[in-house]
Amino acid sequence: xxxxxxxxxxxxxxxxxxxxxxxxxxxxxxxxxxxxxxxxxxxxxxxxxxxxxxxxxxxxxxxxxxxxxxxxxxxxxxxxxxxxxxxxxxxxxxxxxxxxxxxxxxxxxxxxxxxxxxxxxxxxxxxxxxxxxxxxxxxxxxxxxxxxxxxxxxxxxxxxxxxxxxxxxxxxxxxxxxxxxxxxxxxxxxxxxxxxxxxxxxxxxxxxxxxxxxxxxxxxxxxxxxxxxxxxxxxxxxxxxxxxxxxxxxxxxxxxxxxxxxxxxxxxxxxxxxxxxxxxxxxxxxxxxxxxxxxxxxxxxxxxxxxxxxxxxxxxxxxxxxxxxxxxxxxxxxxxxxxxxxxxxxxxxxxxxxxxxxxxxx
Length: 362
Prior knowledge:
- By secondary structure, the protein is an alpha+beta fold.
- The chain has helices at residues 2-42, 46-82, 85-91, 96-119, 121-137, 250-263, 265-280, 284-294, 303-330, 338-361; strands spanning 145-151, 157-165, 170-179, 185-197, 202-214, 217-228.
- It has ten helices and six strands.
- The chain is elongated.
- This is LptF/LptG family permease.
C-alpha cells in the first residue's frame, strides 16, 4: 500500500507544482508587460526590475496555488477513471476513501506550508515590493508619517509626533499625555525624539521634560533619556501603513484588531474581514481539493474535459460566494468569521450534491 500512496502523492505533487510554476510565470509575464511603460519612462536598471519581479513572486504563488492543486487533483482522478486504473485499485481491495487518503494528506501538508509561507515570507516580500514601487514611481516612502497621533485602546495615554522615521524606528518632536483611572490628566511628557526598544518592547524618550500632576501640585523635571515600559504601542501603528492589515505581522494584526474593536466597531468589521480572509486564503487549497474528491468522474467520454469543467465551475461558485460574503461582513451584516465559513460549507454541499446526482443518474 505504501507504493500506491507514494504513486498518488507524487502524481499530485508533480502536476500541482508544474502547474503552479507555469501559472506564476504567466502572471509574472503579464505584469511585466503591463508595467513596461513605467519601467521605460523611469529608466529603471535591469537589476531594479528584477528585484521588483522577485519580490512579487511570493504573492503570485499564493494566487495560483489553489487552482494549481485543483487542476492536479482533477487531472489525476480523471486519468484514473479514463485509463481504468480506478477499477484496478478497487478490485485490489482499496476503497475510494482509501485512494483519497494520500491525496488529502499531501494537500494538507501543502496547505500548512502555504499558510506559514503566506504569513511570513509573502507578507514581508509584499510589503517591500509595495514600498519599493512607491519610492520608484511615487512618493519617497510609504511608511514614514507626519503629524501622527496614537492612543492606546483601553490604556491611559496619547502620543503625538511631528514625524515618524520608519527606517530608524524614531519619533520626532514627541508629546505624550497620560490620565488616571478617573479620566483626569496626570502627566505630560515632551521629548525631542523617541526610539523603539525592540528587546524591551517599549519606547525610550530622549532630551525632554516631564510634568506630573498630583492633586493641585505640578512637579516638573528634565531628563536626557527616559524609558517608559508602559508605552508598548508598536512602531507599525505610527506608519501610514498602520491601516493596511494585509501587510501587518500576524501578532501585530491581532493587537490592531483588538484595539480597533474597542474604539471603532464600524472600522473593525472591514479590517477583521480582510484579516480572516488573509488567514483562510491558504486553506482554499484544501477546500478545492475536497471539492475535486467529492465530484463524479464517471463520464462516458471526454472524462478529463467534463471533470475539469465541473471542478472549475464549483471553484467559481466558491470564489464568488467568498467575494459576496466578504462584502457583507465588511458592511457589518455578519460576523467577519462567517465570511470564511459560509463559502466553504456551501461549496462542499454543492460538490456533494453534484456527486449524489451523478450516482443516481449513473
